[in-house]
Amino acid sequence: xxxxxxxxxxxxxxxxxxxxxxxxxxxxxxxxxxxxxxxxxxxxxxxxxxxxxxxxxxxxxxxxxxxxxxxxxxxxxxxxxxxxxxxxxxxxxxxxxxxxxxxxxxxxxxxxxxxxxxxxxxxxxxxxxxxxxxxxxxxxxxxxxxxxxxxxxxxxxxxxxxxxxxxxxxxxxxxxxxxxxxxxxxxxxxxxxxxxxxxxxxxxxxxxxxxxxxxxxxxxxxxxxxxxxxxxxxxxxxxxxxxxxxxxxxxxxxxxxxxxxxxxxxxxxxxxxxxxxxxxxxxxxxxxxxxxxxxxxxxxxxxxxxxxxxxxxxxxxxxxxxxxxxxxxxxxxxxxxxxxxxxxxxxxxxxxxxxxxxxxxxxxxxxxxxxxxxxxxxxxxxxxxxxxxxxxxxxxxxxxxxxxxxxxxxxxxxxxxxxxxxxxxxxxxxxxxxxxxxxxxxxxxxxxxx
Length: 450
What we know:
This protein has 450 residues and is α+β, with helices and mostly antiparallel strands. The chain has 13 helices and 23 strands. Strand 19, helix 10 and strand 20 form a beta-alpha-beta unit. Helix 2 packs across helix 9 and helix 3 packs across helix 8.
C-alpha cells in the first residue's frame, strides 16, 4: 500500500512540475505568497470554469459580476469589516513568532515544536490584542490629501452594493443569484499549509437572493448542491463532510452556516462555506448609503434574504490535487500520478513520437498535435525516453497520451494510452481528435478507493 498523501509530497510535485512556486524566491521569498506556473494556471482556470458552468451556464437564475477590488471605504464600515474583521493576536517575545490567541492550543511553540506556546519557561507571550485582517492602502497621488482605502477581504460586498443595478437589468426576480470570481486579500496572522491559506487568493462566491420565507429551504438546497459539485469532479465521498456551525461559531450576520470540510493532509479543514446571511448586508448598505436595496414588484416589497456559497480557488485546487495524488508500482517501477478529473486536468492529451530523431515520426506527431490543439489543450513532447515522458504526463494529470511509432508510418494508426488504467489500443490517426473528444466527454469516476 502506498504511504498516505502528505503536504510535503504535494508541495514537491507542485514545484517539480511547475504548478506552484514560492513568490519572490530569488529574494528569499515572501511568506504565504505563491506564483502559479503554466500547469497551475491551467488547473486553476479549469476549476473556475467548472464553477462558472455550474453556477451560471447550467442555470437560468444566476448572473455573473466582476466588481472592483478597491471599493469606497464606506462599504467596509457599513459591512462591519472595519471594526469587526479582526483576530486576537499574541506575540512571543522570545521566539518572535505570532499566534492567534484562540488557536494557541493547536499551535506549535517556536522554540520547542513538541509544546504549545506558553508551555515552556522561555515562552514570553504578550496580552491578546485585536489585529485587523484588511490590507490598508491610499487613494490619491499625494500622501497628505489621499484617502484611506482597503483591498477587499472578500468579493461578497461588491455583489451586495450592485444588487439594485443587477436587479434592474438582469430580468430576474427572487430567487436569483449573482456569482463572482475575483481576488481577495487578508493579512492573516497565521497563514500556512502551502496554498491552503495565503495573503492573496481568489474567491468564487455566489449570493442567492430569496424571499425571506424561502431562505431556510434554499440554504439546505445549496449545501447539498455544492457538496454534489465537489463529488462530481472527483473528490471522494469519504474525504468530504458537512459540518454545521454551533451557535457560538456563527458570524454576527449569519443565522446558519455549514462548512464543507475536506480531509487535507493536516486534517479535516474547511473547503467551502455556505451561509444564511439573512438580510443583514442589504439592510446595512441601505442604512449607510441611503439607497434602498430591496425587491419591489407591484405591491410586493421586501428586503431579500441571502444564501452564500463561498469557495477559495486556491484551496479548491489544493483539495483536487490532494485527492488526485496517487503512487503505485508498475513493472517494478514507482509511478506518481495525478488522477484528476479530465475536465480539470491542465492538459487533456499528449502527443509523443517514439523516436524523436525520426523525421517521419516527428512530422506525423506535429501534424496530429496541431490538429488536436484546435479542439483541446494538447502538448507535444519529444524530450527524453518515452517512459520518462509518460511519467511527466502522469504527474501533471494528462488523461491520454498518443504515441507515434513504426506502425504509424505503415498504417496511419497510433497508440492511445489511458492514464488511470494504463490500457492501450490502436486507433486510426485520422479519427484521433474525435476519439479523444468522445473520451473526454464520458462520465468519469476516480479509480482511487474511498
